[in-house]
Design goal:
By secondary structure, the chain is of the alpha+beta class. Among the domains are: 106 residues, Arc Repressor Mutant, subunit A; 237 residues, Rossmann fold (3-Layer(aba) Sandwich), CATH 3.40.50. It is built from 26 helices and 14 strands. The strands form 3 sheets. Strands 9, 10, 11, 12, 13 and 14 form a 6-stranded mixed beta sheet that branches. α20 runs parallel beside α22. The longest helix is centred in the middle third of the chain and has 18 residues. The chain is globular and about 70 Å long.
């Protein structure tokens, strides 16, 4: 096929690898064009996912999610109906089209008018708004170059404060809210973590603070390992992590979260699309090369809307000069920053003085993004534990370890009582080392909500973190979780939506939002959000469980069972099957699923067992298991007020008594 193919006003020129909309070239990326070419060449049949992956990533093993991204890019340009998904098989090109002499098609009538202009895979000075992106928070359009450029230049130079400091003694971290200047932080730090002080009346409402302007927004991408042996990957990640940490501590900046920025790793996506996906105006990228004892670090700051390079710099260093370089680069950073521009000193780094400990911490974070099984969590736990063993003063690693232990205790992968206590001690340790560490306060908020059920103390932790960093996605997630537990569903949904706006590539956030929508009865919206979560991570736990709950509520038990078959979390598969089989009148099968659930998970899933008994109308058994869950500190007690599957026990006086015991509003 060499002649141009026309869709009304749109042309595809396969030989020249061009897509024209209204006569103007539209950039879709080289991978997307490979996918489009194969689909069009085989329009008469379904093209399998394996064929498309091989065409776009020949000889490479990549996650299927990468193909979803390219398909979504094409649909946003050509229309949703241009490419049809054939479940379990692949995709088929279904838009009508003709050669250059043809009469046009339905696509042209939709008035597609993208303005981007790039030839396949190549940047152009005329590049405009990319097409492959979720909608970010509203932001303004242009860059104020003076103070912004000085800030980023200073931060790049301040690698000496961060990554080079990994190998030597470090000064005590300073933040804009240190204990010495704000005694209230001590009150919500180590000494008062159990919340003896009164609860703040309200937390700041979602979206209450003005969105940071786009000219002060940036994503720090993982630096690329260009060394011959490819053995510096985690050192590269460390550079990116340090820069991200330094930038995010400045309240004048909006910095894309690590989860979202690092999800781009290994993906072939152009910078304008990355910026649009992350909701930022500027992208910082770099590389590291090593030759013997020589190290070269290169970095560049690019304005995403037109590809203009705002700044670039290379640093050549000898590994043996590390300690001398620390002072040299620190002095350069202070001079470059011109303190008067920002009126405050450069934020301090919170990293480790041990390169090995910091590398282990980065590895643990990377592994966390792909956890699906108990073995996955055990590996994350191992690396996090090795990080704090390598540097017992590494506050950030202690906060991370607390998060890991909390999740393992909640999932039943470690003993509940000892697991939660270990999580608490890790959070306390992180705050003892750095009382103003946001990650430490966020970790403690999670423990106070899910285990302690101390709503006032949790609210204080959340409020303080959001006062320091209104875009902190951990705190926004816990704010939504707490609002949900207390029955403020609309408020919870708003927090989750704001968290996604700040961190648009984290599937956990979509899962939380979908659960909130489901509890409000907004099933269609919840299903759409869950599809987004699966597009980001096809193995995301609990997504299919929530889809099954929607099917149950919609009276579709067959669909519910199909979703449960796809759920990777066995505990919830058993809960769902026991419920659905009962709804279908299949008592023996419901009994078998419930019996297996009680046999395997009685020690940490008492509330889930109570839910099944309640749904089956076994009211007394339901309260026996609810009380057992209370004694076990089952974290699912938090949502007893909300779960629709508990509807059969709400008229019983014991239910109101249970809410009072949980200090939940009746």
């Amino acid at each position: 096929m060499t002649s141009p193919v026309r869709f009304g006003n749109d042309d595809v020129r396969l030989s020249g690898r061009q897509l024209l909309v209204g006569g103007q070239p539209v950039h879709i990326g080289a991978r997307a064009f490979d996918v489009l070419s194969l689909l069009m060449k085989h329009q008469e049949r379904v093209v399998t996912k394996e064929e498309l992956l091989e065409a776009a990533w020949p000889g490479l093993v990549v996650e299927e999610n990468n193909l979803h991204v390219q398909i979504n890019t094409l649909r946003k340009v050509l229309g949703r109906d241009a490419i049809t998904t054939v479940p379990g098989q692949g995709y088929q090109f279904t838009a009508s089209w003709d050669t250059e002499s043809g009469t046009g098609s339905d696509l042209g009538s939709r008035g597609i008018t993208p303005q981007t202009e790039l030839s396949a895979g190549q940047p152009s000075a005329a590049a405009g708004t990319p097409v492959d992106a979720p909608a970010p928070k509203p932001r303004s359009a242009f860059l104020r170059r003076g103070a912004w450029l000085a800030l980023v230049l200073a931060t790049l130079l301040a690698i000496g404060f961060g990554q080079w400091r990994l190998l030597g003694p470090r000064p005590k971290a300073e933040t804009s809210a240190s204990p010495g200047t704000n005694p209230g932080i001590i009150g919500i730090g180590v000494e008062q973590l159990l919340g003896s002080r009164p609860q703040a009346e309200t937390s700041a409402p979602p979206g209450g603070s003005p969105a940071k302007a786009v000219d002060h927004s940036i994503a720090v991408l993982p630096f690329v390992d260009m060394s011959e042996k490819k053995d510096l990957e985690y050192f590269c990640d460390g550079l990116s992590e340090e820069l991200l940490d330094l930038l995010s501590r400045d309240p004048q900046l909006h910095v894309a979260s690590r989860t979202s920025a690092f999800s781009i790793k290994y993906k072939s996506v152009d910078l304008p699309t990355i910026a649009r996906m992350l909701g930022v105006a500027n992208v910082l990228e770099g590389s590291v090369r090593r030759s013997g004892n020589e190290l070269r670090i290169s970095a560049q700051l690019v304005r995403a809307d037109d590809g203009y390079q705002l700044w670039s710099q290379s640093y050549d260093r000898k590994l043996g000069d590390i300690f001398q370089i620390q002072d040299e680069i620190a002095s350069s950073a202070v001079r470059a920053l011109h303190l008067s521009l920002l009126g405050e000193s450069l934020p301090s780094s919170t990293s480790s003085k041990s390169m090995e400990a910091y590398t282990l911490y980065l590895q643990a974070q990377s592994l966390l993004m792909h956890t699906r099984t108990k073995a996955d969590w055990e590996k994350v736990d191992e690396y996090a534990h090795r990080a704090i063993s390598g540097d017992a003063t590494f506050a950030l690693a202690w906060a991370f370890f607390s998060r890991v232990l909390s999740a393992e205790a909640q999932l039943g992968y470690i003993a509940s009582a000892s697991g939660w206590e270990a999580a608490r001690q890790a959070a306390v340790r992180s705050l003892a080392l750095d009382p103003a560490l946001l990650e430490g306060h966020a970790a403690m908020a999670g423990i106070l909500i899910r285990h302690d059920w101390n709503w006032a103390a949790a609210q204080k932790q959340i409020d303080w973190v959001l006062q320091q960093d209104p875009d902190n996605t951990f705190a926004m997630g816990w704010a939504g979780y707490l609002a949900q537990a207390l029955g403020h569903q609309d408020r919870a949904i708003a927090f989750y939506q704001n968290a996604i706006a700040s961190d648009p590539l984290d599937p956990d956030k979509y899962n939380l939002l979908a659960q909130g929508l489901y509890l409000k009865g907004r099933f269609g919206e919840a299903q759409m959000v869950l599809r987004e979560a699966l597009a980001l991570n096809s193995g995301q736990p609990l997504v299919h469980w929530t889809l099954a709950r929607i099917a149950i509520a919609s009276g579709d038990p067959a669909a519910a069972l199909a979703e449960l078959d796809r759920e990777p979390y066995e505990q919830m598969r058993l809960v769902g099957r026991a419920v659905v089989f009962h709804a279908q009148g299949r008592k023996a099968e419901s009994d078998a699923s419930l019996g297996e659930l009680e046999h395997k998970y009685a020690e940490h899933a008492a509330v889930d067992i109570a839910i099944v008994h309640a749904y089956r109308g076994e009211i007394d058994q339901a309260f026996v298991w609810l009380d057992r869950g209370y004694q076990q500190r089952d974290s699912d007690c938090v949502f007893v007020k909300l779960d629709p599957l508990l509807e059969n026990i709400r008229a019983d006086p014991r239910y109101q008594a249970f809410l009072r015991k949980m200090k939940l509003p009746a």
